[in-house]
Amino acid sequence: MLRDQLAFALKDSSKADDPVRFCTLRLVQAAIKDRDLAHRASGKDPVSDDDIGQILLKMLKQRKESSRLYEEKGRHDLPRRSARKWQ
After folding, report:
1. Is the pTM of this model over 0.70?
2. Using an 8 Å Cβ cutoff, are 9 and 23 in contact?
């Protein structure tokens, strides 16, 4: 299950002392938990692997859009950091 793989990757990044990967995975898990809570409130099952894939795609699109906007606004230091996290 994708959720288990993400949990293992989070533990691994913590042990490897990889702060960028760790923070990214925490952000992903928080988004999944938010969707789980929304599903529970509406009486649905927890999110599936397909739902997690959709969450990840949405997050990736958001980060790419942010990078594009940073470039347009002349903030050349920010898109490199943002793009590096999502490649």
Report:
1. yes
2. no
As given in the structure block, the two tokens for residue 75 are 């903030």
Identify the structural domains of the chain with CATH numbers, from first to last. Answer: 2-85 (1.10.1510.10)
| Sign of the alpha-carbon dihedral angle for 9, 15, 16, 22 | positive
- Asked if residues 35 and 56 have their Cβ atoms less than 8 Å apart, the reply is no
Alpha helices in 1-87, H assignment, sequence order: 2-15, 19-41, 49-72, 77-85
The C-alpha atoms of residue 59 and residue 31 are separated, in whole angstroms, by: 9
Tokens linked to 44: 């649905």
Return d(Cα 64, Cα 56) in angstroms, integer.
Answer: 12
Q: List pLDDT tens digits, range 60-79.
A: 999 889 888 888 888 777 65
CA distance 25 to 13: 9
